[in-house]
Specification:
This protein has 321 residues and is mainly alpha-helical. The chain has helices spanning 4-22, 41-50, 57-66, 85-93, 110-119, 125-132, 135-140, 165-182, 193-206, 213-226, 233-240, 276-283, 307-317; strands spanning 31-35, 75-79, 100-103, 156-159, 292-295, 301-304. The protein is 45% helix and 8% strand. The longest helix is centred in the first third of the chain and has 19 residues, at 4-22.
Length: 321
Amino acid sequence: MKRLWPVFGVILILAGTAFHLNAPPAGMRTARFSIHHGDGARRVARRLQGASLVGSRHFFLLLFVLRGRPTLYAGTYRIERGMTSLRVLDRISRAGASSVRITVPEGFTLRQIAERLDSLGITDGGRFMERCSDRRFLAGLGIHAASAEGYLFPDTYLFPPKTDPATVIRVMHHQMRRVIADSSPSFSGTMTRHEILVMASLIEKEAKLPEERTLISSVYHNRLRKGMKLDCDPTVRYALNKYGGRLTYRDLECDSPYNTYRVRGLPPTPICSPGREAIAAARSPDSTDYYYFVAKPDGSHHFSTTLREHLRAVKRFRDGG
């Protein structure tokens, strides 16, 4: 029996240490904690400790390993005062029983995002739209534009019901910043982040086939260098909020800064939320002599170098000639 006392002593010490490390940190208070796409366990543990939501990041990582390395879901979570490290891990690895999953497709506009958020009960769509045009709030995020259009990354997220619209915007914008930072340019362009997103949004709306993104990008870059108008149909649709049916010649005459048939250069803001590949294409277009393209019936495009060739293609593919 005497030989077992040292073993019991070690067990008691380890149990006491674990109890201490698992305990809520002193001064812990209820807070919102966001996990972003691409955040690993080490980064999450470091941020949790930095926010005084766990006492030891090393103990949190040990729990993570002992739990079988569960998935840490991207989203925003409510961490209540007094939660142990184990409870915090369970909260973020089970995505919270009350969290709602939302998928924002590439090419969605702010209004479409608002409608989906509202329908899922994540946040009030009207308040979301108001926040997306709050210039002071946007400037605090580094968005120096009239709205957050194009600055929220299309992806799958998890949010608790009735999340503050500002939190949703922060999480989605943070992911957009990460994507832009990851898509390093391979050409010596001087485009600003805003111009990249505007260009990417046009490509997102025009390209039906993934392999055509960089070709469409080359057309727009070539036209900009020549001082030509972009003649981009999706910008007119955005201006008129007309997303179905054919555009008429009267539509192409609409008085709007988004009408690239009348106004030279890029439109003032993105026209949708571009995805990762569209952003990469905006920064790294193919090197071509193309200045025109027209859609074929199968959704692909015919690219042309000269106006004469383009008009023949339009007659062939659009007018049925």
